[in-house]
Amino acid sequence: MTRGGALAVGILLVCAAGVAAAVALAWHPEIDRITPPAPGSFDRYLVAEGEDLAKLGNCAGCHTNDPSKPLAGGRALDTPFGKVFATNITPHPDDGIGAWSGEAFERAMRRGIARDGTQLYPAFPYDHFTHATDHQIEALYAWLMTRRPIAGRAPETRLAGIYGFRPVVAAWNALYLNEGPLPADASRSSQWNRGRVLAEGLGHCGGCHTPRNRFGAEDIARAYNGAWTEGWYAPPLNAHSPAVRPWTPDELFAYLHTGLAPHHAAAAGPMAGVTRALAQVPDEDVRAITVYIASLMADAPASKHDQPQPVDRLDVAQQQHPDAAALYAGACATCHDPGAPMMQLGRPVLSWGTPLHEDNPHDTVRIIMQGLTPPGGASGPTMPAYADMLSDQQVQDLAAYLRTRFTDKPAWSNVPAAVAEARK
Amino acid sequence: MIKLTVNGRAHQVDVDPDTPLLYVLRNDLELNAAKFGCGLGQCGACTVLLDDKPVFSCLVPVATLGERKVRTLEGLPKILSAAFEAEQAAQCGYCIAGMIVRAQALLERNPRPTEQEMRSHMAPNLCRCGTHMRILRAVRRAAEAMGGGVRDVAEQK
Asked: What is the pTM of this model?
């Protein structure tokens, strides 16, 4: 054999080994189908625990599209890689997960692999769910398997380019999946540790609040630095929190459990749905989460220097935005000005809400245009939507006025783009 | 002076720019169909059409109208009013003008809504007497009278 020939064989061998390794990484056995277990075969206390955990993780937030078909999937999640459709997770034997054993369910939760061995996309936050305890996963399985089976499959997820080839997710997992339960931090209280498991695991708070890298993985070095989700900005939950009043466990508890924190604001956008789900979770679980999340913000400016006196630069705002001042007086003041009926109920002043203090106007603009509407006539923080009442220019002026009047931060530069985006 | 167009007629009114449109309609133009309910954009009794969209006139400062056109119950065709009358949808009647105006916006855009579309469209307007079922029947009746009809009707006649 010539030297060139030997080299070629060598290269081929290395390539083959690489391919074999990649296949080994990406190949997972199918787990046998089971006959869906009778709902009565599950321990009813385990099922009840699973229900609490499903609310805590807001499974229905993504997996329910049509409210009359809970958990039957079909809702599209817009990702930078394309639309990912949430699947049917009812116990329907063919269209849902009825044929999945507990082992198959645990593998999906911990490693993102479906019963038939295919890779799931990490839009399903198994990078968080992997941190759940064995007991939590068992309870969630018991709850899901005792729901009403609903026929019908979600549309097939078809991502463009290389991402359409699911085995590439194996490489993503090798790089970014930190598999398994979290070791306890002995220097912290048991409540803090419990909150951490709930928030990092099934609660998957980082799914929205941690920025992602170009491969869609959470950038752990910038954990809880704030990130964009569905056109909204999920603000930082760490030392970078722009809040003006401290996020204490009590404030967080009110926020997460009722959707309204007395010294901050009402939950809006995707977070409104999260708080409605958490309203149904046992107090002690929500308390544990608040202890953990508050600890992440211990070094935030507001935690070190509380500013109880609200900013209200009425004169400056009036001078700079005279048209918007009239607009505010006619459209906003009836609820938001001191002495208004809503304010006498103890609602927070506008200057305490995070949106006006964020670097971008997108949350403020979306709240003005879409308002706050508890779904299905439920009770909760309510605000009329102004999209049809005000022109784009008026929304822009109003956002600029609010920023000037209720914060001491520089004016936003990108308000028109934010309004155009929200109008779509 | 502030200019506005209501039901196709141009008006000029001498009011503060932040005066709610509702006050101008009732006090200056004597168009009294739209009602003051809560003044907070929560009840819908003050609903009028602003360029085909239903809005709470209690929260629209009159100076923001610009070229946009206002329509009130007084300026609408009578099909919906007749349907509300036929179904005896009013008890105290305070919410009815707002209900009719909101329904008008829906049926102009889509005379063949689904039951769910109709219900979510009507949801922002409240009726304290509780005649919601009659109100929904009136909207269905009007949809048919306008050559459409609510699909998949939830309630059997």
From this structure: 0.91
